[in-house]
Specification:
By secondary structure, this protein is α/β, with parallel strands linked by helices. About 40% of the residues lie in helices and about 20% in strands. Helix 3 runs parallel beside helix 5.
Length: about 180
């Protein structure tokens, strides 16, 4: 659904199922897959947003973002108007064995983002809410921080990601 709206904007995806789903939904050179970089998806997207005027979309996970919460405060401090962070919150550390994450015990990432100075935030609980928030984020300045509460069921096959080729393909789109 999100790919129907991004056009040619750069998308940075978290490792694991997020990258696998993005790959299978529509691999393109402007997708930056962060395999091997747990906790760095939104940090990378922030750097990209600071280096371009284009909207940059970060598809992060609650567990990964919890590993590097300093990113949220840095986003708040820098406040790039062209950054949209979507956090898939399944309340688990899915990549390390499906242990309950902090969000399962009350950590509210939207409130954390607001406390860090990100004023345009929203928590959504269904696809329609996500699409509405995403369309708003694409049409308005941010930074945007959207927490999408999700339940995972099935997984796509692991995508054939080669980090070096991801970087090569992605860089070519900015030349």
């Amino acid at each position: 659904m999100l790919l129907n709206h991004v056009g040619n904007l750069p998308v940075v995806s978290n490792l694991g199922p997020t990258t696998d789903e993005l790959w299978h939904a529509g691999h393109r050179d402007r997708n930056f897959y962060t395999y091997g970089s747990m906790g760095l998806c939104s940090s990378l997207a922030l750097g990209m947003a600071l280096a371009t005027d284009e909207k940059v979309i970060s598809l992060d996970g609650d567990g990964s973002l919890l590993m590097n919460m300093g990113t949220i405060s840095t986003i708040g401090r820098e406040s790039p108007p062209n950054l949209v962070v979507i956090v898939w919150d399944n309340e688990q550390w899915a990549q390390t064995g499906n242990q309950a994450s902090h969000t399962a015990y009350g950590t509210d990432l939207e409130k954390v983002a607001r406390a860090c100075g990100i004023t345009t935030t929203q928590t959504v609980r269904d696809e329609r809410g996500l699409e509405e928030a995403f369309l708003q984020a694409l049409s308005q300045d941010g930074p945007w921080f959207i927490v999408a509460k999700i339940e995972e069921t099935d997984y796509f096959p692991v995508s054939p990601i080669e980090p070096e080729m991801t970087l090569y393909r992605f860089r070519k789109t900015f030349l």
